[in-house]
Design goal:
alpha+beta; 14 strands; 18% helix; elongated
């Protein structure tokens, strides 16, 4: 089991694919009873539904710059109710992470090779078959922030689901409320003048929306340091005809004659 340390979590962030409905509310209400003094923040509730292979590439950016001593409780869990394991990860200043062993943490763990990993054996007395967010993740999170002992076994990253996944994902991983298309590619990998293929066309980059004409599509470094596609005052998902899981590619800047 993870040891108490100066990085012991003091707040809980919820990251789920639950969307609207009772699920996040029930998690928060249970946490208010089990850990009444602990701040709980709903960081995101519309991660790609049932797609840990896409949601995984958003987590490092979502946590970047966030407060230390945070326990990120991540529920994108199409294997709920099966024998899939739960993983606890201690990532130093990047906080603690609680997630199913379905690849959801793998890009984050690649960035934190010194992370300490544990496979959770502890289970509560009552556990529904289909809502482990409320019945398993929440009580486990409450105990972790209280510094309580939980039965868990050390595990190595190479033993986890997704250990063979690539470090980045050249696909659309998230569509926001404005229709902007977030990819799983780091913006550091492209030169500012590089072009990104989206659908049937090639997009140039811009620093911000106002740098292009209204209705023009472009790519940019978003606030999570990922490549994102957008249309100034439009919807990139509609205008480019792209959605979750669709591939993108890139090419170097055109040669100057």
């Amino acid at each position: 089991m993870p040891e108490q340390s100066p990085e012991q979590p003091t707040r809980i962030a919820l990251l789920t694919d639950f969307g609207a409905g009772p699920y996040v509310g029930q998690m928060r209400l249970r946490l208010s009873a089990l850990a009444p003094a602990v701040p709980v923040v709903e960081l995101i509730s519309d991660l790609p539904a049932c797609r840990p292979d896409l949601a995984a590439y958003l987590l490092p950016g979502l946590a970047r710059g966030m407060p230390a001593q945070t326990l990120y409780t991540c529920v994108v869990d199409p294997g709920v109710g099966t024998e899939r394991a739960l993983i606890i990860a201690q990532c130093g200043e990047s906080g603690w992470w609680l997630a199913p062993d379905n690849g959801l943490l793998m890009p984050l763990l690649r960035a934190h090779p010194q992370a300490r990993l544990f496979r959770l054996r502890w289970r509560p007395d009552r556990l529904s078959a289909t809502f482990h967010g409320r019945d398993l993740f929440v009580p486990a999170a409450a105990r972790l922030v209280a510094g309580e002992w939980l039965e868990a076994d050390p595990v190595e990253a190479r033993q986890l689901v997704g250990a063979d996944w690539s470090a980045e994902c050249a696909r659309i991983c998230y569509v926001d409320a404005f229709g902007n298309l977030m990819t799983g590619l780091s913006a550091d990998r492209l030169a500012p003048a590089a072009e990104v293929r989206a659908g049937t066309g090639w997009l140039k980059s811009a620093r911000t929306f106002a740098d292009v004409a209204v209705g023009e599509a472009f790519w940019y470094r978003n606030a999570f340091d990922l490549i994102e596609l957008a249309v100034n005052q439009g919807r990139a998902d509609r205008d480019l005809g792209l959605g979750l899981g669709d591939p993108i590619s890139s090419r170097p800047p055109p040669a100057v004659p």
